[in-house]
# Entry
Amino acid sequence: MSASGGTKAIVAALAANLAIAAAKFVAFAFSGSSSMLAEGVHSLADSGNQALLLVGGKKAKREATPQHPFGYGRERYIYAFLVSIILFSVGGMFALYEGYEKIKHPHEIEHWYWPVGVLVFAIIAETFSFRTAIKESNLLRGKKSWKEFVRHAKAPELPVVLLEDLGALVGLILALGGVGLALLTGDGVWDGIGTICIGVLLVLIAVVLAIETKSLLLGEGAGAENEQKIEAAIVDGDVVTRIIHMRTLHLGPEELLVAAKIAVPQGDTGAEIASAIDAAEARIREAVPIARVIYLEPDIYSEAEAAKGADRDAAPGGPTPPGTEH
# Structure
């Protein structure tokens, strides 16, 4: 993902949420609407989340150190995971609690024009933020569906902002519905029901974000398309005759580790093999520019050894399942 694209979407969301949060708290102060309070806390939590994403992006740019030889690219995943926790605890759980209290102790909404006016303003502002996130995401999404983009994106910022903005828009509609029904019926319970619906929505979005960022934290491979490009780049048909096995791992959204055991002819000299490996590394970086760390181990391919299955020590986590060897 383009870091600049992600940053643009984050800044747009941050500016919108800060303005919306201030407006919602003012509306709550004048109207006493629990939906407004829940939405105000939601927008404040979202603002904090976007600030965390910006901090994570900055920290991820630090140079590698002896203690962290592969750099700090995964900081972006850590901060995205923190966002999901904050969205769940501060946003979702607070809204559920506030909605429960409102249903238990309902009261009429005062100065109805404050919450209604703020909600309309918030919907317009969130639509602008959501539109920016969609526009930046489309530059990277390609032919993937939105579900595939969120599930398989290696950079967490845009999926996080997309889901936050979507949740904010739906939450605003729920809040408007709750406030509207409370005004029409004169029963403040509807305001509480709208608040609980907002809480459930935020919890669901937080769970989805937590699941996806957890997968990134554990370490994801390059993806089928990039792996095919890497495989095609490694084999030259002359010195490098085949790939015995290969592993890829994202060290960060824009940094990929490639480790492969490659087959070379038995009679080749060390100089010939070293030259072939250098050429293969150059081809890999040309085919997949984010492949920054590459380790290629030459070996003599043996049909008899291959038939026995992969070496446990050569395949992290256990032997390669039959039929998956290259």
